Fold this sequence. Notes:
Layout: H1 3-8, E1 15-18, H2 20-37, E2 39-45, E3 52-58, H3 66-97, H4 103-126, H5 132-140, H6 144-162, H7 171-181, H8 184-194
Amino acid sequence: MTDALLQEIGFPNQRQLVQSHWVETLYNEFCLLSFIRRCAVIPVYDVESGNRVILVQQIAIDWRCRHTWRVASKNTLWCLFGCAIGDFGTIAFFQFTGIPWPTLAIMILAIINGLLTSIALETLILVRQMTIGTAFRTAIGMSIISMVAMEVMMNVVDWVLTGGAVLTWWVVPIMLAAGFVTPLPYNYWRLKLFGKACH
């Protein structure tokens, strides 16, 4: 346990009861800090009060687990496939039609569409195991951090190498490689720490 980490965000003790409507925001802040400081964020419930209890515990993550790297790589590839459909489709549309949109606007739209197609793909995969409503909510709840990092990096690489939102035979593989490598450590960490995958 570490009081220093809690004090950084305004909590005086190692154990703090939090009202339910504050839990998600606080939990996300803890997760961000935990990624930087390598601390486990463990949400549990206090039986007597019914409130959420957030525990913070320092742990050591083994970054040499080959099995976890394989699983994280597979999950990242699924995410990359879903994101690339919307992202590349959007860039290709403006490239082929010649619609005079600013590069930044095209890339923002490409990122949004990439996120949407990735969520849609995950929903289609999950709908075999649950109702469509539950599948959609589960897909929305997947790791947005991973998808956003992937999308942003692919578009930044495109802009740096081509000077705009342009797809060529040589830039696409580089974009995909950058999109794969960028979120991979985070997906590994998420799997190792929480046993959760983005796909």
